[in-house]
Write a structure and sequence with these properties.
- The chain is of the alpha/beta class.
- It folds into 2 domains: 115 residues, Cobalt-precorrin-4 Transmethylase, domain 1 (3-Layer(aba) Sandwich), CATH 3.40.1010; 162 residues, Tetrapyrrole methylase, C-terminal domain (Methyltransferase, Cobalt-precorrin-4 Transmethylase, Domain 2), CATH 3.30.950.10.
- The strands form 3 sheets. The chain has a 5-stranded parallel sheet with strand order 3-2-4-1-5, sandwiched between helices. Strands 6-7-12-10-11 form a 5-stranded mixed sheet. Strands 8-9 form a two-stranded antiparallel sheet.
- The protein is globular.
- The structure holds S-adenosylmethionine.
- The site of S-adenosylmethionine (SAM) has 22 residues, from strand 7, strand 10 and strand 12.
- S-adenosylmethionine binds next to strand 7, strand 10 and strand 12.
- It catalyses: 2-[(3S)-amino-3-carboxypropyl]-L-histidyl-[translation elongation factor 2] + 4 S-adenosyl-L-methionine = diphthine methyl ester-[translation elongation factor 2] + 4 S-adenosyl-L-homocysteine + 3 H(+).
Length: 284
Amino acid sequence: MLFVVGLGLGDEKDITLKGLEAVRRCDKVYMEAYTSLLSFGLSSDGLSTLEKLYGKPITVADREMVEEKADVFLSEARESDVAFLVVGDPFGATTHTDLVVRAKKAGIDVRVVHNASVMNAVGACGLQLYRYGETISIPFFTETWRPYSFYEKIKKNRDLGLHTLCLLDIRVKEPSLESLCRGKKQYEPPRFMSINTAIEQLLEVEEKSGESVYGEDTECVGLARLGSEDQMIVAGPMKQLLNVDFGAPLHCLVIAGETHPLEQEMLEFYRLKEGSDHKENGTA
Ligand SMILES: C[S@@+](CC[C@H](N)C(=O)[O-])C[C@H]1O[C@@H](n2cnc3c(N)ncnc32)[C@H](O)[C@@H]1O
């Protein structure tokens, strides 16, 4: 049996009872760590906290292992119980859906244990699930690679008055993945896109495209470390969020479309009050 277990967003305590039972009965435990990271995964204990809780070692699965060498743990799952841990929810990233499809096609029994996910940003920011359009990803721009494809998707959403959830790029150098999870020193630090960088890039694309899809005054909500004790949620126009220090990763951003009066009331809770400490916003 292959158990695909969501770990939630905050810390080691966010695994569900069902998830914990599944992990404890498994002979082998893998953890995916390139599409998302638990915030405590960046601390000095990192993975060993999870290993103590589960009472067994964890193998960190990098992108190559999940996407190209999955046959190894899929054949293990044919013979015994194998857990595949995913930060957030198992279906919050395409790559895990693909894994489940491959396992089922290979005739392996699969059980999915759901958990909180970045998908919860949709409601946590004060806006309503049924008023969202397509979710987009914003990649880090380089000197020579500045893809603007997400602009058209935001345009479609905004033309319909819908909100847009923007997921922000994570770049982890594969050789350093294990050491990152175990909180060891590594030579090339991973890069996590901040809300500030995302807005800078969004405004650059708007300036180049010039279709007035959004602008500096467009209402947005920035969410950092959702699900953690120190989560931070701030609502305001792009030009204001550009200067807010959201702190440690992970970050995501919602571009608001047309808002209902109830949504507007919720957004008020997340606005910066004059003289307030940014860090107080939206704490759990
Ligand atoms: C592929 S998605 C996450 C998939 C994960 N399996 C899940 O269900 O949450 C990764 C992106 O979601 C956003 N994200 C993930 N966790 C977050 C958190 N706790 N707070 C804010 N944004 C988060 C970041 O933009 C990150 O780059």
